[in-house]
Design goal:
Layout (H helix, E strand, L loop, with lengths): L1 E3 L4 E5 L2 E5 L3 H7 L5 E4 L3 E7 L7 E7 L9 H4 L5 E4 L4 H19 L7 H16 L5 H12 L2
Antiparallel strand pairs: 1-2, 2-3, 3-4, 5-6, 6-7
Length: 150
C-alpha cells in the first residue's frame, strides 16, 4: 500500500513502513536522506492533521527512541518522520493510517503458544514414559505442571 504526498511517499510493506523522499520539495525540506524504515510494532503514536483549503495536512509517526517534533505544521515540514499531503492526496493517507493502526493492534494481540490438543498429547506421551519406567512420578508431575502452566 502506498500514498504519495507533497514532500515524500509512505509505503506499508508487510510489518514496516517506509518513508521515501522523492521530488523537489522533499529534497528542499529533507535534503538527500535515503529511505527510512520503521517497524510497525515500534510505532508508539500516529499524529494525523487533515488538510484544508489553506494548509496541507500531515501524518507523523512517533516511536521509542525517535525524536518527536511538537511544533505543529511548521515543524512538521522539517521532521523526517512526517509526510505532508494536500486535500486531494488525503484519502490515501487516511486509508494507510487505518491499515497501520490495524497492524499495530495485531502486533499487540496475544498469541497462543500451545493449543490444548497439543498439551494433552504431550502429557499422554509423558505418561507413557512414566508408565514404562523412563520417567519418575516426580519428573512426570513437574513436566505436567510446566505444560499446564500451573
Amino acid at each position: 500500500m502506498e500514498a504519495i504526498g507533497v514532500n515524500g511517499q509512505l509505503e506499508l510493506v508487510g510489518n514496516k513502513i517506509i518513508i521515501k523522499r522523492k521530488g523537489v520539495l522533499a529534497k528542499m525540506t529533507q535534503g538527500l536522506k535515503g529511505d527510512k524504515e520503521i517497524l510497525v510494532k515500534q510505532i508508539s503514536s500516529i499524529q494525523f492533521k487533515p488538510a484544508n483549503l489553506f494548509t496541507n495536512g500531515y501524518i507523523q509517526f512517533a516511536f521509542s527512541g525517535g525524536k518527536e517534533n511538537k511544533g505543529g505544521l511548521m515543524d512538521a515540514t522539517k521532521d523526517e518522520n512526517t509526510i505532508m499531503f494536500n486535500k486531494k492526496q488525503q484519502p490515501l493517507f487516511e486509508q494507510i493510517k487505518v491499515a497501520i493502526e490495524q497492524k499495530i493492534d495485531e502486533s499487540h494481540a496475544p498469541t497462543i503458544v500451545q493449543n490444548t490438543v497439543d498439551v494433552a498429547e504431550q502429557i499422554k506421551k509423558l505418561a507413557d514414559l512414566r508408565d514404562s519406567g523412563i520417567l519418575t512420578d516426580e519428573e512426570f508431575n513437574s513436566k505436567k505442571k510446566q505444560l499446564l502452566e500451573i
